[in-house]
Amino acid sequence: MSRITISMPDQMNEWVEAQVHAGRYGNVSEYFRDLVRRDQDRREAAIQELRDVLARAEASGISERALPGIMEAAREEARQKGLPRDQD
């Protein structure tokens, strides 16, 4: 097992120590291992979601629409979702 040293602001250190003292983790190392596992799981889920989106897109076939129509539909969907406006 490898060992690393990290530096963090006192406020963050107090948070980590509080999690340990509250019994959520046995020690500081367990807390950080849990953070790494959660980050790995989150990234793996994001990759799988992207793979699923790509598989659905590929399975949907070739669009009958031209690129300008597709782009306009994407802009409209983004507007409806409140996403930032693209740079034309």
TrEMBL record:
<feature type="region of interest" description="Disordered">
    <location>
        <begin position="68"/>
        <end position="88"/>
    </location>
</feature>
<dbReference type="InterPro" id="IPR010985">
    <property type="entry name" value="Ribbon_hlx_hlx"/>
</dbReference>
<dbReference type="Pfam" id="PF03693">
    <property type="entry name" value="ParD_antitoxin"/>
</dbReference>
<feature type="compositionally biased region" description="Basic and acidic residues">
    <location>
        <begin position="73"/>
        <end position="88"/>
    </location>
</feature>
<dbReference type="InterPro" id="IPR022789">
    <property type="entry name" value="ParD"/>
</dbReference>
<protein>
    <submittedName>
        <fullName>Type II toxin-antitoxin system ParD family antitoxin</fullName>
    </submittedName>
</protein>
<dbReference type="InterPro" id="IPR038296">
    <property type="entry name" value="ParD_sf"/>
</dbReference>
<keyword id="KW-1277">Toxin-antitoxin system</keyword>
<comment type="similarity">
    <text>Belongs to the ParD antitoxin family.</text>
</comment>
